[in-house]
Amino acid sequence: MNKINLESHIADYVIKNKESHYRLAYSYVKNREDALDIVQESIYKAISSKRTLKNPDHIRTWFYRIIVNTSLDFLRKQKRLVLSDDEAMLLNEAACEDSYRDIDLQKALYNLPDNCRSIIVLRYFEDLKIDEIAEILGENINTIKTRLYKSLEKLRIQLCESEEE
To answer: pTM for this structure?
Structure first.
């Protein structure tokens, strides 16, 4: 595939799957504007590094990996950022959080560690296969299976506890 066709292929893929990309980024940062920024930065990175896409048939896992890495970079930068109370309040006022129909599931998902939440989101919200998730996250397939099982168990426990309350 030549350079122009590859850029067009990436652009078509990104446009066709923009909601999935947003959901994945949002699952990490939990903020609408930040998720949109991550998707935008991921698109830029994808076009800039298009030569790393060896097989155009693997664009889905390749681009998801870019989104995951961009999200993790964003979170690392946020941890280093020290805000005064006034600055933090201004940022929180300006941010608009997305709403979910099932608030218990949302809370339970957010209580999971990032690596567990990523697996749940990729598997059940993005409908990826275990081997694709392993490739995106750079992990062994058995590690993904184990984390998925443990994450589902944690979710089940949290949701049962919230029902009892």
So the answer is: 0.70
